[in-house]
Amino acid sequence: MKNFRLPDLGEGLPEAEIVEWHIKVGDAVETDQILVSVETAKAIVEVPSPEAGIIAKLYGEAGDIIHTGEPLLAFEGEDEDAGTVVGELKSSGKGGSDGSNQDQFIVGAAASSKRARANRATPGVRALAEQLGVSLETIRGSGPGGLITNDDVYKQASHQKQLGDAEPLRGTRRTMAKNMALSHAQVVPVSIFEDVDIGDWQKGTDTTMRLVQAIGKACAAVPALNCWFDGDNLSRQLLSEVHVGIAVDTPDGLFVPVLRDITHRSLKDLRQGLENLRESVASRKIPPKEMQGATITLSNFGTMTGQYANPVVSPPQVAIVGAGRIRDKVIPYNGAATIRRIMPLSFTFDHRAATGGEASRFLGALVEALRKPG
Fold it and tell me: Under a CB-based contact definition with an 8 Å cutoff, are residues 51 and 65 in contact?
């Protein structure tokens, strides 16, 4: 058989979850015929056939997670792991990537899908798991080479009895959990807070766009916060263009599409770009490349509730701006106690990459840009 392994889907994503097979064993397929739909951390992608042939084996089923470089399916034939080149990878999105990536698939990765994990158990352990109602797919073996032992099964059964059956995280929520753990392990976060008086804004001012433009001005004033930081090598890359990740809450989890080059675009163009991104997120048709490359992030959580937060920095970025719920507040204004519109701001930065002074000056520039009428 000739194995076809899950290719790099063009964005360096390490794994994908099988959503739906479009073929079955024994089917004859043509080059570029869609074989399977998979869900990455960013979008649902259709994987085409790299060649014409007969399908000999499928290595997973819907719900299985396959890592880049692991066998996805096999064609009938003599040569195993031939140098297959993937055809056009098709995102199910509209107006996204041109889909012209042609990536040679990777050879030699060890299997680690949930099915492979379940296979790392002896017949006796499988029988015990069946008796206790435990799914081996949920267990990481503690034995040699990841072998699942009787003790592993008993522990899992005890957990299930105490807590009930657990639902494994999928897709975006799985990625979010990993990214949050990565941030917790790598970033040294410090948060500072400030209120900005926006009482001179004109009625109908686009709050999100004002925030985006203010971030651009703050990055120009303090470039150290618009950078990528490599904690392993203690190096940083200051970036000339500002690409703002916009946190978008959905029922499926958190998405952060990227609004690019915000300092060289008009307000109208930025608003239309954000609407396009949100529409793509809502339909789960956003191309993976539109979720990567942010240099700083905005979380406008105040559109829901909450005044202040400790936003989480996503490496290699070094900063995130959080905007809380706008409210009326009595403050001194022109020598008198006056009710003014106030926007609370939260700013988290990675203290390895920026000083407290730089962060304070950045927040000051942000406040100054937002305070102006507009």
Answer: no
State how far the alpha carbon of 202 is from the alpha carbons of 236, 367, 372, in Å: 39, 17, 10
Greater confidence, 102 or 139?
A: 139
DSSP alpha helix (H) spans, the chain: 114-118, 123-132, 150-163, 171-186, 207-221, 267-282, 356-371
Q: Which residue has the higher pLDDT, 176 or 11?
A: 176
238: DSSP letter: E
Q: Which residues contact 152 (CB under 8 A, 6 or more apart)?
A: 125, 139, 140, 141, 142, 143
Look at the alpha carbons of 290, 97, 8, 23 in this order and tell me if their dihedral is positive or negative: positive
Asked if residue 31 lies in contact with residue 111, where contact means CB atoms within 8 angstroms, the answer is no
> Do 291 and 171 contact (CB within 8 A), yes or no?
no
Identity (one letter) of the amino acid at 215? I
CA dihedral 8, 12, 14, 16 (to 10 degrees): -60
CB 7 within 8 A of CB 86: yes
64, 17 contact by CB (below 8 A): yes
Q: What is the pLDDT of residues 213-223, one digit of tens each?
A: 999 999 999 99
Residue 360: pLDDT above 90?
Answer: yes
Residue 170 in tokens: 């999928």
**Is there a contact between 252 and 307 (Cβ–Cβ < 8 Å)?**
no
Q: How many CA atoms lie within 13 A of 155 on its CB side?
A: 10
**Angle, alpha carbons 31-36-37 (nearest 5°):** 130
pLDDT band at 176 (very low <50, low <70, confident <90, very high): confident
Report how far Cα 24 is from the mean position of its chain's Cα atoms.
31
Q: Which two tokens stand for residue 224?
A: 């150290």
HEC sequence for 58-105: ECCCCCCEEECCCEEEEECCCCCCCCCECCCCEECCCCCCCCCCCCEC
- Which of 198, 201, 240, 236 lies closest to 345, judged by CA? 198
Residue given tokens 């930081």 in the structure block: 229
Contacts of 44 (CB under 8 A, 6+ apart): 19, 37, 38, 91, 92, 284, 285
Buried b (16+ CB within 10 A) or exposed e, 308-332: bbebbbbbbbbbbbbbbbbeeeeee
